[in-house]
Amino acid sequence: MDLSFDPNALDLSYHHFIGGRRIAPEGRGLPMRRPSDDQANGECPVAGAALVDEAVEVAQQALRSSGWGEVRPRERVRALQRWADLMEEEAPHLARLESVASTRPIAQIVEGDIAVTAEQIRFFAEFADKEGSDVVPTAGTSLGMTLSEPYGVVGAITPWNFPISMAGWKLGPALAAGNAVVLKPSEMTPFSTLFMAELALRAGIPAGLVNVVLGDGPTTGAAITGHPGIAKVSFTGSTAAGAAIMENIARTGVKPMTLELGGKSPQLVFADADLELAASAVARGILSNAGQACVAGSRLIVAEEVAEALAEAIARHMADIRPGPTWSGLTQYSPIISRRQIERIDDIVRRSVAAGAQCRTGGAALDREGYFYAPTLLSGVDQASPAVREEIFGPVLTMQTFREEEEAMALADHPTYGLAAGLFTRDLSRALRLSRALQAGTVWVNRYNRSRDHILPTGGYKSSGIGKDLGREAYRANRKSKSVLIDL
User: Fold this and answer.
1) CA-to-CA distance for 209 and 152, rounded, in angstroms?
2) Measured distance CA(109)–CA(100) in Å, rounded
3) CA distance 433 to 477
């Protein structure tokens, strides 16, 4: 099936979604441009504190009137499963709404993002009647219980790089756990999230439980995270933005938070690894979404004796890309989200080369319409290189070599980030030993990408985050516990 479409023929609606209704914007919004062709794409509304107040109040009223957190859990399960079914049924339209404004090629959205998100929503739904309160051991003359309860209204903020997936990460566990949500998508990619909210209403999730307010971080995001009616915050984005959210929460009160933040993830390749497998996985780890992923494997750390052979194989994979507009069903390689971001990527590459890095391939924007950056491999870098220190969020891979295992581990340990790591070796003992030693929230061995094993949580060490998304941890993070002790 050809998924290609004309972006100019797509009817886009610029609105908020509160209480099951589209809310028209007021005043001027933030200018939006399509990354695939640098064309204007309208203006994203900006919700101020008053509109956020309204969304939170509507969410609280919806919880009370619907009894969402107190109904038989299977009712929540069925509604969420219908929501997942509708996402799959409406996949072509949902994919068009995302691809027109984002970096995600439409074929990858349909085959990957939507299918996986629907699976994850069903996965979280099934926790609703399987996770709950416990009777705990106490003296025989008493009865001890830990009661599990929803928080109430959860505030969620999602990034621009995987809009559908990230909305699913936030909405799925929060709704399954019995909460309402006020969600702010990125001001650059709001359309698919708004449609997901409308599909939730069609699925039978009561109006007011899924509210989407559009805007930027300093205005709308700050109003959400600092709102006294928001009981818990979930955010995915940069480490700097996560720190600002923590500061805002601390200034306005105390509440739990889940933060999935930046990364500078290493991919370690030992001499005994399957080099063909490693080259393909390493390349995918940095080329997927043009490197615009928190878990992008941007630091290659390879045994000296196989470094040249691996570098040549990776360069071949980098040359075998198919860039194009995100609305073409043939496109495989993504644009960069904005002109500002592509200029930032190029600046880091140039500063790294000036500091001694050798550019083996790429190193410049592609000569074509839109914001496309060539896949880039930099060798001859050290730990002080900007390309090694800074999260680039682009298709730039650095290569460092090692002779001994201890040297490899020292290079892998980043002073700031600890989100993910890849490890390629045929030695099972080494794989298990280093998986334990690597300072990362996720370690992939002989692969570099998430699977559809949604039971595996994701989250970071160090400044890469607090708490977990996915897995049972994500569901439990949307519930609070209460201890009860009864004398008999």
Assistant:
1) 10
2) 11
3) 29
What DSSP state is assigned to residue 114? I
Cβ distance 168 to 124 under 8 Å?
A: no
Dist CA 43 CA 35 (whole Å) = 15
pLDDT, average across residues 162-186: 98
For 343-361, write each residue's pLDDT tens digit: 999 999 999 999 999 999 9
- How many other CB atoms sit within 10 Å of the CB of residue 320? 12
Catalytic site residue from 54, 260, 359, 391: 260
Residue 359 known to be catalytic: no
**Exposure string for 409-425, b = 16+ CB within 10 A, e = fewer:** bebbbbeebbbbbbbbb
Tell me what the pLDDT averaged over the chain comes to: 97
Token pair of 163 as six digits: 């809009």
Q: In this model, does residue 1 exceed pLDDT 80?
A: no
Q: Which residue in the list 44, 54, 294, 359 is annotated as catalytic?
A: 294
What CA dihedral angle connects 75, 70, 80 and 153, to 10 degrees?
160
Q: What is the pLDDT of residues 199-223, one digit of tens each?
A: 999 999 999 999 999 999 999 999 9
Q: What is the residue-wise DSSP string for 382-447? A: -TTSHHHHS---SSEEEEEEESSHHHHHHHH--SSEESEEEEE-S-HHHHHHHHHHS-SSEEEES-
* Residue 241 host element (H or E): helix 239-252
Asked if 146 and 481 count as a contact pair (C-beta separation under 8 A), the reply is yes
pLDDT band at 225 (very low <50, low <70, confident <90, very high): very high
Give the predicted TM-score (pTM) of the model: 0.96
C-beta atoms surrounding 359 within 10 Å? 18
Q: CA angle at residue 400 from 399 to 406, to 5 degrees?
A: 145
Q: How far apart are CA 180 and CA 96, in angstroms?
A: 27
Check pLDDT > 80 for residue 6: yes
The single residue listed with the structure tokens 């040297």 is 407
Any catalytic annotation for residue 294?
A: yes
Q: What's residue 2's pLDDT?
A: 85
- Structural domains in the chain, sorted by start: 7-261+465-485 (3.40.605.10), 266-462 (3.40.309.10)
User: How does DSSP assign 260-326, residue by residue?
Assistant: E-----EEEE-TTS-HHHHHHHHHHHHHGGGG-STT---EEEEEGGGHHHHHHHHHHHHHS--B--T
The confidence band for 300, taking pLDDT boundaries of 50, 70 and 90, is very high
Query: What is the rounded radius of gyration, in angstroms, for the C-alpha atoms of the chain?
Result: 23
